[in-house]
Design a protein that fits this description.
5-stranded mixed β-sheet; 47% helix; elongated; 12 helices; alpha/beta; Nucleotidyltransferase, domain 5
Length: 300
């Protein structure tokens, strides 16, 4: 979202110097568009890559630096900006998000035209409501992540061509199913199709599992994250033993067939029963769903 707004702001400054893209150059105007370079800004310690358009001063024979990029590059807004963006997006107040972005980088509202506010609002609204009808998504990754101290549930889709796309997010915990149900239903309204089945990759959250059952029913195949499973199992073991057990679990999951992987994990479970029953219970819980790709013959 920050990249989207930053690039809108840069385009606004370029248009004020060199005119609209593909427009006829005004007489006496020495500025012209000159391609772009890769650049970045930082928000709350995170590096956000952006495309920085270039402007050439033909009279001076040199490049004209963009004041908005220099301002954004020298500033580093903290979590307050991220919280403001997340709050504005969750409430659908895109005009406010654009204004908060300008304020967050210390840019003067008076130096940013009303047109940027309108363009930023439109870009955010289009991004959040973009149609999913043209893509065939085979899988969804649904997981929680803390952003600026807020717990967000993020849904990413994978197309049949192998492209990953962030589809949507909501502010919630993984223990609550209601916000996730609303998020998934919003994706359906935007054109997500699942009639032929869809693979959902999640951690062990009961809230996520309940939401998937509610929205997709029997047409969903659930793959529990193996990384989370390994992490949970070894957390019950002494620190000196964790590395070895993590490797053993990894090798079991790397077996190419469901039968071989299931047998190795069953052996490991029996061994854990003798040394740490909590770790054994953790491995057993939801074990079948960590082998969904094996069972479907899709593991590679």
């Amino acid at each position: 979202m920050a990249r989207l707004l930053a690039e809108e702001l840069l385009d606004e400054e370029v248009a004020s110097l060199a005119g609209e893209r593909y427009s006829r150059k005004e007489d006496g105007n020495p500025f012209r568009r000159w391609g772009s370079n890769s650049g970045s800004i930082r928000i709350d310690g995170e590096k956000v890559p952006i495309d920085v358009p270039r402007v050439r001063d033909t009279d001076a024979g040199e490049e004209r630096s963009l004041e908005s990029y220099q301002a954004m590059k020298s500033a580093e807004p903290g979590p307050e900006l991220m919280k403001a963006i997340l709050l504005g997006l969750s409430q659908g107040d895109y005009q406010e998000v654009a204004g908060q972005f300008v304020d967050g980088f210390g840019l003067s509202q008076s130096s940013v035209s009303r047109r940027f506010q309108d363009r930023g609002k439109k870009a955010l609204e289009e991004f959040e409501n973009r149609s999913l009808e043209e893509e065939n998504f085979l899988a969804l990754w649904i997981d929680g992540k803390r952003i600026a101290g807020e717990q967000m549930i993020i849904c990413m889709g994978v197309t049949e061509k192998g492209y990953k796309k962030v589809l949507g997010f909501t502010q919630a915990t993984t223990e609550r199913s209601e916000p996730v149900i609303e998020l998934l239903r919003d994706l359906l309204e935007r054109g997500l199709r699942f009639e032929e089945g869809i693979l959902c990759v999640i951690d062990g959250s009961k809230g996520l599992r309940k939401a998937i059952d509610e929205v997709f029913g029997e047409r969903a195949e659930v793959q529990r994250c193996q990384w989370h499973k390994r992490k949970n199992v070894v957390s019950y073991l002494p620190e000196d033993d964790q590395k070895a057990w993590r490797s053993r679990l990894q090798r079991a999951y790397e077996e190419s067939t469901y039968k071989a992987a299931r047998e190795r994990l069953t052996d490991l479970h029996a061994e854990l029963q003798q040394i740490n029953r909590q770790a054994a219970r953790s491995l057993q819980e939801g074990l079948e769903e960590t082998l969904t790709l094996h069972r479907l013959g899709l593991f590679d």
